Amino acid sequence: MLYSRFVSLFFCSCIILIATFAPSAPAFATAWNAETEEMLAQIRNNPVEVLESLDSNATERQTPEALATRYYLISQANGALALHEQALSAAETGLSLQLDTESSLYHYLRLAQAKALNGLGRSQAAVNQARASLQWARKNNDQRLLNYAISVNGYLSITLTQYSEAQAFFQEGYQRLETHLGMFSRADFASMLALVYLYIEEPEQAEKFYREAETWYREHDVKLELANTLFGLGKTTLATGSSEKGIALLEESARIALSIRDLQGAAFSYEAVASELIDLGRPDEAMSYLDEALVLFTQGANPFMQIKVLIEEAHIALQRAQPEIAQQFLDRASSLAVGDSFLPQRIAIADSRARAYASQGNHQSAYAVLLQNRQNRATLQKEINSRRILELQAQFDLEQQRAKNALLEEQNLRQQNQLINENRIQQFTIAVIALLFVVCILLTWLYFNSKRQKHRLEQLANFDGLTGLMTRRKTMEDAEQQYQLAHRHGNHLTAAVIDLDFFKQINDKFGHQVGDDVLREFGDCAQKHFRKTDVLGRIGGEEFLFLFPHTDTEASIDMLKRFADKIRKLPSRLEIPSLSVTLSVGIVDAQHYRSLTQVIAEADEALYEAKRTGRDKIVAGKKANTETSS
Hints:
With 630 residues, the chain is mostly helical. Among the domains are: 33-184, Tetratricopeptide repeat domain (Serine Threonine Protein Phosphatase 5, Tetratricopeptide repeat); 472-629, 2-Layer Sandwich (Alpha-Beta Plaits). It contains 26 helices and 6 strands. The chain has a 6-stranded mixed beta sheet, sandwiched between helices. A hairpin with a 4-residue loop joins strand 2 (535-538) and strand 3 (543-549). Helix 23 packs across helix 24 (553-568). It is globular. It is an enzyme of class 2 (transferase).
């Protein structure tokens, strides 16, 4: 936000300087005919009727502009029904008609294409074209197109988890619209702002804006948007702990959606109701909602939500002690989760499949699935980290380019003004000096900010955000360095692989929040207990790798015993008496192995032996023939 303010200050200075010498920009506005305006309004009430009307209209002998408008309406109606494949196809067909790239209609279709790509989970591919259309709308002062561009760019930012940026877009739209303009009203951006607050877990703010939108939609009988708003309001109400009230809002949303044949909207509401019923311990009631949602998501060709519903149905089957039926649901989900974009879904499916195997007593298969899933999680995390770094770099480069462009524009303006009126040279020089001062401040700030960003990115890459311990990559780098030093100088180096016993049961019984608290306390305790020179890293969900330089196995076991005693006291620190937290540890002397890989493998074997023989113990590797209770 501070960066945006500096850039805003810079552009404001440019605008003040330019205002005296540049003519006013002409105002443009998209001019839809009366029939198109009526259909755009009708999409907000009954998009299915619009699609049926468009299907019945002949397309022969229509101009390219008329055909493109028709495909834009088709894309909008399908998008309103969450039928993103159909929406994308229509937008791309309209763009294939080779419209004038300087026309509003061309940019409407480009934004419709970006909106559909976002709905299909391909947000990164849509960002550049959405930003280009936003800039075009600003440059040409096309107010209606600008509203649409702001909304699309805001939704893209949400999908890319750039919530501050999304909030800025929607806040701009909210402040711009005192009255209804084209497709948008102030209530629309109120609903969008509510969605941002829901994602950043501020339900009170979300409810405030959702209520504003709900009131307007009810007064103006805008059914589709009312259904969507009630869905968001229902989710917000559930987040505040009002289960029955939230379920009632979701059911009302589904009824309205069905009345206008928005089957996907109804399906989302049913799935949300089912999820809450499962959390309330009412799986039998939830199952009927899930079955109905699955049918509707299948009709809408929505594989992501089909997979989510199938996993939830598998969980209910496991609660009913029906692992074979659960496996059938998971098999159906696996057949849908094909392709790189489904990696998070495949991870969720694998977790559920491991539970099913375990409930059947097939622990070997469960272990194999979880072992593979650990690699999938590492791959997913790597992709997320890489994508975030690229996004931050791209954003930084864009802002730098904007500053350079603004500086160049100012320099050109200065030359023009010197040619136009020499009597204004002194005034102009003063303005330039002031502007260059702002530029210097901005560039100085950019320099120091880039250093802070670099440090922050290094922290994010090297240290786990939950435990404060080193990430797997950083742990392996430091561990290899310590291993090489120990072998080169003949020093002791002890390695320990540590696992929190029955951690999954902690998550299942007490909830993931308690699980996160345990991990957080574990990391804090480790950093306080061990030395600054020790390598302390998190290499899996509840698995850790510790290395102790210049320390033999006996001394390391003694340190780990004391550490394990502290960990056993975590339940009292968390004020959860029924909670039990213990450690299983595999420990080896790294001097006896020819590579770090062998060290970790032997420590893993020792850890497995600790688990197999009852857990809550420290087991040394084969080079040290002792077994010690922790």
